[in-house]
UniProtKB/TrEMBL annotation, chain A:
InterPro entries: F-box_dom, SHCBP1-like. Residues 36-72 form the F-box domain. It comes from the Eukaryota. This is F-box domain-containing protein.
Length: 260, 173
């Protein structure tokens, strides 16, 4: 019974969380990488993982580590491995807002009318965007439909008939990608990027927390289609810079709200 | 009669515990299988060992079969290199006890999780690390550094670049 009392006294050491005693020397740096990564896995990507990435180099390395990414792998030998999905739709359904999805370098991923309603980052796992191809087959309106702020990078998106990227709302960032509309007699109906985003002008101030809708495209190759970008909302092509070469045009542009 | 195992802390204190309590630690279970019943734990102080034993005692009492279901699930969970989410303790009374147990300062929590990691007590590791995560939730980087005494080793340029890199995710930037 004396032992029991001693245990009770020792175990109950209530103290405010921010107090750091001089007696014990364990700090959060004493935790190994495995433990820290485990801690980070409990946190939602937005906003916490981005906050912890700003704390120090070690935390940034662990918080942004690909081990925390979801993966899409067409040939899943091990279907029970958590975080690995056989197709993009499943990965997107399982992802939490702010997650990053790594798509394995493979040329026959399918993406048909996939709606993305939460902030996600999609990354192609190959060396070049050509290595990871998402194809939208004839009969589907678009490969990816964005209703939230997202970023896609290092991917090829091909459409047989329809749109590669359908942007409804949010800030879309397209970096280092290839958007292809297949050549066919009906390709005047195809658009690599189409945006239908509208923001009611009268209430711009009160919608501050939603930010503004926009598309930013960088280092991306666009092939085919009637026009590179078609906007049917009140977003317009802005800050267009173009360099005309013999076989292609290099251009940089943004799609944003019409500046009043 | 319950078989007793003797644990010896780093500072020489001895603790006798029932076998099923000690076996909450997979390491101890493996050692006892082919060695004697006195187990030296030089890296664990008596203060921490007392707390760990208390946790094990509580959880051994609640789990009638502490070994089979959790150990195979734990083995599967720890071998995956992808995301792992915690499995919540199902018994609400036990959960309440756990929540009281982790009302400790950060330093004590780290001591306990380092010991629990060394002794391979999966549920205790999960419990403490989830508690640490709760203390990080919703905080900005600066607050987190203050709370855990972490030095900011980013240059202002690096910090700015990082914020920009991640700004795609934040609507109101």
């Amino acid at each position: 019974m004396a032992k029991r009392t001693r245990m009770e006294l020792a175990a109950v050491t209530l103290a405010p969380a921010s107090y750091s005693p001089s007696v014990s020397s364990s700090t959060i740096h004493s935790l190994d990488d495995g433990c820290l990564t485990h801690v980070f896995s409990f946190l939602m990507p937005i906003p916490d993982r981005y906050s912890i990435a700003l704390v120090c180099h070690r935390w940034r390395y662990l918080a942004c580590h690909p081990r925390l990414w979801l993966r899409v792998e067409r040939s899943t030998k091990n279907t029970s491995e958590p975080g690995v999905f056989p197709n993009l739709q499943d990965a997107i359904s399982a992802a939490r807002p702010g997650d990053t999805i790594l798509i394995s370098p493979c040329r026959d991923h399918i993406a048909c009318n996939i709606q993305i309603k939460k902030p996600l980052c999609l990354i192609g796992g190959g060396e070049l965007p050509d290595d990871t191809v998402l194809t939208c087959s004839r009969g589907s309106e678009s490969a990816l439909e964005f209703l939230s702020t997202c970023k896609i990078t290092n991917l090829t998106i091909r459409t047989e008939l329809g749109y590669c990227l359908l942007h409804r709302s949010g800030r879309l960032t397209i970096e280092g990608c290839i958007l292809q509309c297949e050549e066919n007699p009906l390709d005047y109906l195809s658009f690599p990027i189409i945006s239908t985003a509208t923001v009611p002008n009268a209430f711009r101030q009160s919608l501050k927390e939603h930010g503004s809708d926009s598309i930013t495209v960088a280092q991306t190759r666009i092939e085919g289609g009637a026009k590179a970008v078609f906007t049917s909302g009140n977003l317009t092509l802005q800050r267009v810079r173009a360099i005309y070469m013999r076989t292609c045009i290099f251009f940089w542009f943004e799609v944003g709200e019409q500046e009043l | 009669m319950a078989k007793m195992i003797k644990l010896v802390s780093g500072d020489g204190a001895e603790f006798e515990v029932e076998e099923e309590v000690a076996f909450q630690s997979k390491i101890i279970k493996d050692i006892v299988a082919d060695a004697d019943d006195v187990i030296p734990l030089p890296t664990v102080s008596s203060k921490v060992l007392i707390q760990v034993i208390e946790y094990c005692r509580k959880h051994a009492a609640v789990n009638s079969f502490p070994l089979s279901p959790s150990s195979s699930a734990a083995a599967a969970a720890s071998s995956s290199s992808s995301i792992s989410y915690s499995k919540p303790v199902s018994d609400p009374a036990l959960r309440a006890w756990d929540n009281e147990f982790v009302k400790l300062n950060n330093s004590s929590l780290f001591d306990i999780v380092i010991a629990a990691n060394y002794l391979d007590i999966e549920e205790l590791v999960d419990l403490v690390l989830e508690t640490v995560a709760d203390r990080i939730k919703g905080k900005q980087a600066q607050e987190i550094r203050r709370q855990f005494n972490i030095e900011n080793d980013f240059t202002p340029e690096e910090e700015e670049a990082l914020r920009r890199e991640n700004s795609w995710a934040f609507q109101n930037n």
